[in-house]
Prior knowledge:
Layout: H1 5-8, E1 12-21, E2 24-34, E3 39-43, H2 50-57, E4 65-70, E5 73-74, H3 82-87, E6 89-92, H4 104-115, H5 120-133, H6 149-161, E7 167-171, H7 179-194, E8 199-202, H8 206-212, E9 215-220, E10 223-228, H9 230-233, H10 240-249
Parallel strand pairs: 3-8, 3-9, 6-7, 7-8
Antiparallel strand pairs: 1-2, 1-4, 4-5, 9-10
Helix pairs in contact: 4-5, 4-6, 5-6, 6-7
Amino acid sequence: MNMDPLESSAVVSVRGLTKHFGAHEVLSHVDLLVHAAQRVVVCGPSGSGKSTLARCIGGLESYGSGSVIVNGMCVSPAMRHADLVRANIGMVFQQFNLFSHLTVLDNCTLAQRWVRRRSVQQSRQLALEQLHRVRMADKASAYPAQLSGGQQQRAAIARALCLHPSVMLFDEATSALDPEMVQEVLDTMLLLAREGMTMICITHEMGFARAVADKIVFMEGGRILLEATPGEFFSDDADPRIRRFVRQSF
Length: 250
């Protein structure tokens, strides 16, 4: 059977993805395609399956049926060469997950040396380049405890970028931040979008979605109810459930 050209050219292809937690169906036959340089925002009410979908795409969560393919490789926790496959998926989550006993620079070099097998010199050079990219080069010698929440999240973004991933996956990257720190992280994500980074963003930040997204995916009850352009999504003619969600998010 010939594959659909749109699917074969996708960086991320999710087909028929279903997952249960016990008897509870968290994801129900989810289909999603993401192409190179596309910025996809996934939103919806709490408990709709957004984070579970993100974890399945990132290879952190098993699933019952369906498939997740990133750059032509099947993704699952049981996959062979899991670290190399995950290295192509830059993941940034609510928790910053920085190693507290390492400096920002060392946090950014560790995976490079273990996964990409880069030399100390090469990994340090690349780390400094990515820290400069997210305006954190002046904090390279700092420890996480010495940073604000926004700075820690930007350091986590730099760490993910150091592996040169083909897609960046943000799962509620700003939800653990104080309101005054949210914008600095959103500005960093906006910078990556302008540079053409392929991005999947799980977020409630509708202003960011309106400004950045090529496609907005609305989930409810473990299903994708709508895929739309920002113009369609924020239209007065949108589904009442979406209009209600948007009103509550602003």
